[in-house]
Amino acid sequence: MTKQGMERHDIGGELVEEYFVRVSCYLREMTTKGLAMQGQPVPQLYFHRSLAELLRPFFAAGFVLDGLMEPAFSDKADRQKMFHMVFQEIPPALVARMRLGA
Known about the structure:
This protein has 102 residues and is of the alpha+beta class. The chain has one domain (2-100). The protein is built from two helices and six strands, in the order ββββαβαβ. The protein has a two-stranded antiparallel ribbon. The protein has a two-stranded antiparallel ribbon with strand order 3-4. A two-stranded antiparallel sheet has the order 5-6. The radius of gyration is 17 Å and the shape is extended.
């Protein structure tokens, strides 16, 4: 289960906002409903799976992991255009490249 949050810290006399994602029950497979955006008319489904569980069928079929990227938005304008993303240090996507093993 994940929860988003924000805290303000006084760093050198300046209040700095820090956004975070808290993860619990990472290894437990679960389906929940939630809101992704403020004003969303109805909750949507979230399907949580561990990374090992997501990749298991590919490894079983003989694929090997060939590359892995965690792209993030570099500037605030790009993050705000993309679903009001405020998390600078938490990539919104995981990109895996796989190929059939030899």
